[in-house]
Amino acid sequence: MDKKKLGYWLFFIALFLGPLYLTEFRLALMGKFLCFAIVALGICLIWGYTGILSLGHGVYFGLGAYCTAMYLKLESAGGELPDFMEWSGVSALPAFWQPFSNPVFALGASLVIPALLAAMLGFLTFKNRIKGVYFSLISQAVVVVFVTLFVAKQDWTGGTNGLTNFTTFLGISLSSPLVQIALYMLTVITLGISFALASRLTNSRAGRVLSAIRDGENRVRFLGFNPTSYKVFVYSLSAALAGLAGTLFVLQVGLISPAMMGIIPSIEMVLWVAVGGRHSLIGAILGAVIVNSAKSFFSETYPDIWSIFLGLLFIIVVMFLPNGLVGMVQSWKDKRKKSKQKGGTANATDSVVS
Amino acid sequence: MIAAISAAALTLSGCAASNALNEEEETTAADTSDTVSVGVLHSLSGTMAISEVSLRDAELMAIEEINADGGVLGKQIEPIVEDGASDWPTFAEKAKKLLQKDEVATVFGGWTSASRKAMLPVFEQNNGLLWYPVQYEGMESSPNIFYTGATTNQQIVPSVTWLLENKGKSFFLIGSDYVFPRTANKEIKAQLEAEGGTLVGEEYTPLGHTDYSTLISKIKEEKPEVIYNTLNGDSNVAFFKQLKDAGITADDMTVLSVSIAEEEIRGIGTDVLTGHYAAWNYFQTTDTPENEKFVAAYKEAYGDDRVTGDPIEAAYNAVYLWAAAVEKAESFDVDAVKEAAGGIEFKAPGGTVTIDGDNQHTYKTVRVGEIQADGQFKEVWNSGEPVKPDPYLETYPWAEELN
Questions:
Q1: Do residues A298 and A64 make contact, with C-beta atoms less than 8 angstroms apart?
Q2: A-contacting residues in B 165-184 (Cβ below 8 Å)
Q3: Which of B222, B223, B225, B220 lies closest to B166 in space, CA to CA?
Q4: Span B71-100, mean pLDDT?
């Protein structure tokens, strides 16, 4: 266990020192991947630990990103109407945009709004014992609703173009390399703290209840627990993490559009976790970084056929590594240690959707 | 066939040679090497690949021609191709890579407005140069972008005027649900009001939508004389087919489209399109000596079954315009090239284009064409001379409230 802890520390310190060995361009990419890793962490909590497969986390990521982007857009407009409103024929700032000129409100909203939406959706579905595939489908429907809404209300949201072209954050220029390095480090710290909190949660009593819900929700209910409140809590937490990641993403990438909260990105998010290993928090982080690095690497090296390589990667993982890369390492270790003991890979047989 | 193979072989060896040269470049100063690298950034995968791949082909062809002619300022142009993957953050990421890592002199790329909007801050922050080759909704003029496609006053506005004069006063607007159709239709509505047209309907469908029966019954009810179509991609196939199945032909109602070029006609099928119209700045049938050469070269390089079209021509022009601006500036420096670009002329396949130094768009001739059974356009009207670009529609009194 202690060796493991040391390994985590080394991993995060190595990430934190990224600016020392990565070029400016690679650093920016890594910063983006680490934002995705925060989303993956949240998905790991609900999917790997609680057995809720959400195919709609793009929405929470997008909402968090939009909240921050609204503030950035207002700041770069400098008291005037944002450019897209002008050419969409809006003459005054819509009332719901007003509070977003306050950075504290915007950053708070980027956590609270996704969490509230998730709590509402979670409460309505989990209370009615909607689970498994049915919940996944509902989460997809939410994605469609939000994407359609954001595209259609071009005068409020910037339509398909989304919100882009930000210059400053709290008066500091976003384009300077120093600010980018600071944001990168902030992302690493946020990821580290989220990881620490998530692993504390999973090792706590509540965490055991979550795993128990995954493995047998009815038994948990018969034991006197209320699975609904646990599920709503962890689902909102994971949405808040996605919103947080959205904020860091917008600050670093400088862009958010409905395409990034759509169905394909939402499914990609689940794929990161699947590749890394859904039963392991560190696996989720590694999955997000590895899949996205592979995507960048393949598409730079083979711009014409890179998607085939990425597809192969997914197929290999799904066919041969049902518990992802970390699951592979784990089962290999288990086999070596206690080759005789039965049930060493207890999780290998459970279903993807409980 | 043999010619095509040897052309491909030549390209490959040319690429290999220039790659080798480029590796040397890393050790020597950029100015003393004999190549200059430029970025080519289009979607080679995803939903937009079908359109954008031919832009890449046109740009690579122009680069090859310029290289065969001695290059720019004596240097061979080395293209670095990247895939935007029909995904806007990827466009921003790859643009950053081209500017920061590869330090390219300029980038040719983009198709959708969203991809351009995503790349715009990257180019402005890194003081890069982007050549954007597709007609778009206007209302933009970045100091780091040159727009070689039409803005609205070089495509939509004149085509609406032409329709009002020749085809009828009552308009039905249909479009895909994204920023180009919505913005374009806002402008069309203001123009109709000012020029005596009437609007009988305005409908949007999601990108990729394929069921148009409800919309067509609405059209049947309203009986417009003109349908102004800003649908994009696959939706056009479904719309035109279902329109024909509903018994509406080009004789009953005129459909004018702004996103259907020769390439798209091949996909939709001439049986349902014949007799309808499209507005562009260039058709494969445009009758200029430059175009004859261009079409022949394009077919030789990429196959007899390929067709050219407006965005393809604009992409091809962009490379030549950049090269001319570099020659005039005697430098690859972005600011020097921008400074020199105003007034640069190029005898393009679609007629002479000139860069407007003020807004970095180009003067272009507007054309309206009727789709023929062979999948080509027959030009029925043109503006006679290149039209000055006016991305903010400042010269139109009815557009005042749009700004």
A1: no
A2: 177-179, 182-183
A3: B225
A4: 92
Q: Chain A interface, mutation test: which of B80, B182, B398, most A Cβ atoms within 10 Å? A: B182
Calculate how close chain B gets to A257, using CA atoms only, in Å.
8
Chain A: closest CA distance from residue B150 (Å):
18
Query: Which residue has better confidence, B373 or B233?
Result: B373
Count how many domains chain B has. 2
Residue B397 has pLDDT above 60, yes or no: yes
Tell whether A159 lies on the interface with B, counting CB pairs under 8 A: yes
Contact list, A23 vs chain B (CB under 8 Å):
100-101
Helical axes A177-203 vs A2-16, angle rounded to 10°: 160
B191: domain CATH number is 3.40.50.2300
pLDDT tens-digit map of A271-330: 999 999 989 999 999 999 999 999 888 888 888 888 888 888 888 888 888 888 888 888
Local structure of B8: helix, strand or coil: helix
Asked whether residue B7 falls in the same domain as residue B40, the answer is: yes
Test B45 with A32 for CB contact under 8 angstroms: no
CA atoms of B115 and B87, how far apart (whole Å): 7
Regarding whether B378 and B320 lie in a shared domain, the answer is no
CA-nearest residue to A158 within chain B is: B179
**Domain edges within chain A:** 31-261
**Choice between A247 and B235, residue whose per-residue pLDDT is larger:** A247
Exposure b/e, B46-66, CB count within 10 A at least 16 = b: bbbbebbbbbbbbbbbbbbbb
Q: What's the average model confidence in pLDDT over B203-225?
A: 90
Chain A within 8 Å of B85 (Cβ-Cβ)? yes
